[in-house]
Structures are given as C-alpha cells and as structure tokens.
UniProtKB/TrEMBL annotation:
Residues 17-46 are annotated as: Disordered. It is found in: Cell membrane. One of its GO terms (cellular component) is plasma membrane. It comes from Pseudomonas amygdali pv. photiniae. This is Methyl-accepting transducer domain-containing protein. PANTHER family: LYSOZYME-LIKE PROTEIN-RELATED, METHYL-ACCEPTING CHEMOTAXIS PROTEIN MCPB.
Length: 94
C-alpha cells in the first residue's frame, strides 16, 4: 500500500513538474513577444521623433519664407505708392 501511495505521489509530482515546465515555456514565449513588441514600439517612436523634428525644421523655414514675403510685399507697396504719386503729378501737369 505504501508503494502505491509513493507511486501516486510521484505521478502527481511529475504531472506538476510538467505543468510548471509548460507554464515556464509559455511565460518565456510571452516575454519574447513583449520584447519584440517593445523593440518595434521603440522603432516607431524613433521614426516619429525624426519625422516631427524634420517637420519642425520645415515649419521654421516656412516662417522665414513668410517673413521674406511680408518684407517683399512692403517693398512692392512702397513702389506702388511712388507710382501713384508720379501718376498724380502727371495728372496735375496734364
């Protein structure tokens, strides 16, 4: 009877060890997947950071171009004022 109890206990222990081994393998696989996903997420964040940095540079260049456009518009406005003044003087002489 004692041998049967020991055999039963050994079988239960072997079953438990197999279950622990399977759980360990599952946990290992889940950890690998999490690591892969984290690496992918890191890559996506790095790419987004580069793109945002590039966009910020382009927005800065756009701002500079707009400033030049405003300055050029002011100069054109000045030339138009001179042309109007000359036209008025010409009309007065006519």
């Amino acid at each position: 009877m004692e041998v049967d109890q020991v055999a039963t206990a050994m079988n239960q222990m072997a079953s438990t060890v197999q279950e622990v081994a399977q759980n360990t393998e599952d946990a290992s696989q889940a950890a690998r997947q999490a690591s892969d996903r984290a690496a992918h997420g890191s890559s996506v964040v790095q790419h987004a950071t580069r793109e945002i940095s590039q966009l910020a540079g382009e927005v800065g260049q756009l701002g500079e171009a707009m400033q030049r456009l405003i300055q050029d518009s002011d100069k054109i406005g000045g030339v138009i004022d001179v042309i109007k003044a000359v036209a008025e003087q010409t009309n007065l002489l006519a």
